[in-house]
Amino acid sequence: MNGTWMQWMQGIVTIRIVGGQPEKLVNEALAGGLRLWSIRRTSAGDVECAVTVGDLFRLRPYIRKTSCKLRITGRRGFPFWLVKLERRKFFAVGLLMFVAGIYALSSLVWNIDVKGNVGISEEAILKAAEEEGVRPFQWSFRLPDSDVLSKRLEARLPDVAWVSVEKRGTRLTIRVVESTRPESRPLLSPRHLVASTDAVVTEVLVETGRAVVKKNSRVRKGDILISGTVGLESTPRTVVAKGTVRGIVWYEYNIVSPLTQRVKVYTGESKTRWYAVVGNRALQISGFGSVPFAAYETVPLVTQAQWRNWKLPVGKMRERLMEVRIDERELTAEEAKAAGIMQAQADILAKAGKDAKVLAQNLLHEKTDNGKVYMKVLFEVEQSIVTEMPIVQMQGE
User: What angle do the packed helices 89-106 and 78-87 form, to 10 degrees?
Assistant: First the structure.
């Protein structure tokens, strides 16, 4: 016996018509403009239907005329819901406070995200936004319109070409497109490119200047590779030498690698703590007491409440404390050698540059003593071997 939304607001009463002439009552009531629906006959021979509260009182003349009696079997709608709330005042007040609290929390700006910035720091953008009144825990209805705010931020940030401000729920996103400026290159003085170490040259590529060495040449530290002096001997001129020279360099390492390795192992034991999260603060609600593990790792997981497409500034966080222990793993001599050599190669590449390559390695000496493997290894590495040397010109030249 569902009614329309307007009928629900007026209040819907389900009635049973007993005795008299129920069919005549229904027909005359409908002819008189009353709204009766869901009319049906019960197993006892009575007629049951639904009517609004207003039309219920207008049924009285028809009831007397047809000698019928009415029994109310159900009440639904807004007026009856208000009566129930009046009986439960504390519930009604709590419900209103809850709705008001959710509305107030959803009207605040809780998080401000900055996207698209590369050269401009996020702190500078947030500072400009704060000067325009955009800050966390600010009422969103007090903020200027997004278009107005975007133009104001563009004026405060001269290094950006475009700014967009978008608000979704409690999160405000500032997107920027930075202005493209030509890269400023420092002014360089005339120079030579010289060898940074002893090596055998494998590649020479000259951009500016004059190549002094060739492929497969052996050079010593300080030898000129690309000269910054060009032109005829009678009329020389100096330039900024530029280019690439790569060569093979040898490194001798004394490596000590232990035959035991300390590894971290999870035991499977854990303890869980739960927190209620409001904004950037968390309140612990379970898992109190000391941690029963001597060593452990903490793994947090935050779940934020969501209503439709809005992320609310409340949620929960599970913090899992996982017990760990440190075990010692025995290595074979070959495993210890491989680990030591790998660590030495990583150290070489860190010193020689990201474009360096280890071409070969020669084991010169090896022995095992006191639970360790001692090695002397010669590494053959191809790398850049250039360094700069300024050209000092004498006065009068």
Answer: 110
pLDDT for res 158: 81
Q: Which residue has the higher pLDDT, 340 or 145?
A: 340
- Please report, rounded to a whole number, the percentage of residues in the chain having pLDDT higher than 70: 94
> Tokens 């003593």 — which residue?
369
Distance CA 296, CA 146 (A): 47
Q: What are phi and psi of 28, to 5 degrees?
A: -70, -35
Distance CA 230, CA 196 (A): 22
Which amino acid does the sequence have at 40?
A: R
Token pair listed for 202: 């494998």
Domains of the chain: 5-81 (3.30.70.250), 108-178 (3.10.20.310), 254-260+330-384 (no CATH), 264-328 (no CATH)
Distance between CA atoms of residues 387 and 224, nearest Å: 10
As a three-state string, the secondary structure of the chain is CCCCHHHHHHCEEEEEEECCCHHHHHHHHHHCCCCEEEEEECCCCCEEEEEEHHHHHCCHHHHHHHCCEEEEEEEECHHHHHHHHHHCHHHHHHHHHHHHHHHHHHCEECEEEEECCCCCCHHHHHHHHHHCCCCCCEEHHHCCCHHHHHHHHHHHCCCEEEEEEEEECCEEEEEEEECCCCCCCCCCCCEEEEECCCEEEEEEEEEECEECCCCCCEECCCCEEEECEEECCCCEEECECEEEEEEEEEEEEEEEEECEEEEEEEEEEEEEEEEEEECCEEEEEECCCCCCCCCEEEEEEEEEEEECCEEEEEEEEEEEEEEEEEEEEECCHHHHHHHHHHHHHHHHHHHHCCCCEEEEEEEEEEEEECCEEEEEEEEEEEEECEEEEECCCCCCC
- As a whole number of angstroms, the distance between CA 114 and CA 175 comes to 6
Q: How much of the chain exceeds pLDDT 90, in percent?
A: 37
- Say what the pTM is: 0.47
Cβ neighbours of residue 379 under 8 Å, at least 6 residues apart? Answer: 250, 251, 252, 253, 344, 345, 348, 358, 360, 361
Q: In the predicted model, is pLDDT for residue 188 greater than 80? A: no
What's the average model confidence in pLDDT over 28-41?
89
- Give the residue from 235, 247, 282 showing the smallest Cα distance to 359: 247
